[in-house]
Amino acid sequence: MERVAPLPSRRDVLRGGYALALTAVAGTSLAGCAKGAGDGVGADGRVTIELWHGQTDTAKDALARLVADFERAHPGIRVDMGGGVLADAMLQKITASLASGSYPDIAYIFGSDLANVARSPQVVDLTSMVESGPTPWNDFWAPARAAVTINGQVRAAPAVLDSLAVVCNKKVFRDAGVPLPQAGWKWPEFIETAKKLTDAGSGRFGTGWPGAADEDTVWRMWPLIWDLGGDVVAKDGRGIGFADTGAQALQVVEALAKDASVYIDPKPGSEQMYQVFLGGRMGMVVTGPWQLPDIVDAKIDYEVVPLPSFSGRPMTISGPDTWTMFDNGETRVRAARTFLTWLMQPAQDVRWDVEAGSMPLSRPTQQLPAWKKQEADAPGLPVFVKSLETARVRPTHPAYPQISQALGQAVVAVLLGKSTPAEALRECADAANAALLIPR
């Protein structure tokens, strides 16, 4: 089997912490920023735009190759990739740069941070860009469009797309004499399967769950809540939309904990949980396509199945990240629009997906031979892509970081047996509802 192209580390999903810590800063510093200095036109007549890409290693190299090709095709524009910070620290860097009046033309912003960043008047509205011209906007997967749309306006371009499914270690299932799950299975079956796969004597767990109360802990809960009819924020916007369904969803976590069938990873990033799975001591893990390269490298005989549900209907979550554009004057905005428009075309999108690690933004990209080959080389990858047909995204709401923190604490309290689902959800609702009532 060929080596699967690396997909983004799930470090890139741990986005609740920075957003929460800096929400207050963003609220005071983004409102009245001066326009960035300089029109970017050099002595040679080329326009230079600054890209804070946030990437490391493979993804950075892949983007550099794309930038080089763009510059050859657009000799009047130069893309400077030299500034910025890694994605984990990008919100803090952008907040400070907007306050100082010196900011990039494009930055890689986590999807859950976009609502707070987009409060700045320096964030460029991209609605007209994606609704006209060559961008296949209507063919983009719904999660990719939803993640960058705030109050009907497109405030960024989608950058990285993913989804959640269940990866099963087939050897662990065989050793335990448990049949592999099938599409359409239910959460009670997940609980029972995890219990049957667990063997305390050999240190084997049925499944795992992040236990750091971070966004990685939380975003696995939303598919359960949505499937039960709940939502992150109530329709009136004045409170959470999961006061009842949240407690029901937490009962799944409670059952796994009571059966001692779940490995609880106390550290941010879930690396310990994944190491247990890669070491053959976990039967199934809820994860995304970013984990497939490590699973292949570990020579795990695996199968990918869709997330279970309560209703029998397909349900999962996608957590897209964004390329957010900032206003440094008409000339640089025009050049930055040209670059992002080019980058989102299927011919470039498929290269980014395969070389850096993402799923295709649009159906036209999905149909390209390069992506078809990627799917053939990575068993289970089509399951993640198909799940995008019914995936939902977290709301682009400025109070989301506080809601996430409150729910994360509730999940951990239940996982550790310190609280019942009902008690934990009440405390979660008190904190999250208070955050929703803060004027923004």
UniProtKB/TrEMBL annotation:
InterPro entries: Bact_solute-bd_prot1, SBP, TAT_signal
Coiled-coil region(s): none
Organism from which the protein derives: Nonomuraea guangzhouensis
Pfam families attached to this UniProt entry: SBP_bac_1 (PF01547)
Protein's name in the database: Extracellular solute-binding protein
PANTHER family noted in UniProt: ABC TRANSPORTER SUBSTRATE-BINDING PROTEIN (PTHR43649:SF30), ARABINOSE-BINDING PROTEIN-RELATED (PTHR43649)
Domain of life the protein comes from: Bacteria
